[in-house]
């Protein structure tokens, strides 16, 4: 499934000429809304041929693109789950759920280009430095690292991606 996800990200980036999940959502006619959601980070739902990504407006703004990209992954691969009930995100980077893992792989591949992260790995050599430079959660950088390893890149193992990092 990972190869299929990576192909879909490449297809979208080529088609829309951007890696910005908000621009892609707009061009795909997916409505992005912001609401107070309590502990909920965001959710995706599909109703009557209309697709929605809803983001918790009370989160740090730098997390908005990550949530949007993650929910965009659900749109691409899990629409059937969202027809009856929204796919809700209480924690991102959950490794226990296959749909959540797939959405995380989609988000990491969309938001972090290979060339960018490989240049940073050559300079800094630590996941923490790379995450700080990219202004991304270290868990997302870890997902990208796992993707790069699957593509044959020689980078160190990290594997810290858990489902509770946004709770901190």
From TrEMBL:
Membrane-traversing stretches: none
Residue ranges occupied by any IrrE N-terminal-like domain in the UniProt entry: 26-143
Name of this protein: IrrE N-terminal-like domain-containing protein
Domain of life: Bacteria
Alphabetical list of PANTHER family matching this protein: ANTITOXIN HIGA1 (PTHR43236), BLL7220 PROTEIN (PTHR43236:SF1)
Entry-linked Gene3D superfamilies: 1.10.10.2910
Stored InterPro entries: IrrE_HExxH (IPR010359), Rad_response_metalloprotease (IPR052345)
């Amino acid at each position: 499934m990972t190869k299929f996800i990576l192909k879909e990200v490449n297809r979208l980036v080529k088609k829309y000429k951007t890696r910005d999940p908000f621009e892609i959502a707009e061009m795909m006619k997916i409505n992005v809304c912001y609401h107070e959601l309590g502990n909920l980070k965001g959710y995706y739902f599909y109703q009557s041929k209309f697709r929605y990504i809803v983001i918790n407006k009370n989160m740090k703004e730098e997390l908005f693109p990550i949530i949007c990209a993650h929910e965009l992954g659900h749109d691409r691969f899990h629409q059937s789950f969202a027809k009856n009930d929204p796919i809700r995100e209480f924690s991102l980077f959950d490794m226990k759920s296959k749909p959540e893992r797939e959405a995380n792989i989609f988000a990491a591949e969309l938001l972090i280009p290979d060339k960018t992260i490989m240049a940073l790995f050559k300079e800094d050599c630590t996941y923490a430095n790379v995450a700080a430079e990219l202004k991304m959660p270290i868990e997302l950088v870890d997902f990208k690292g796992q993707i790069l390893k699957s593509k044959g890149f020689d980078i160190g193992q990290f594997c810290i991606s858990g489902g509770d990092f946004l709770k901190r």
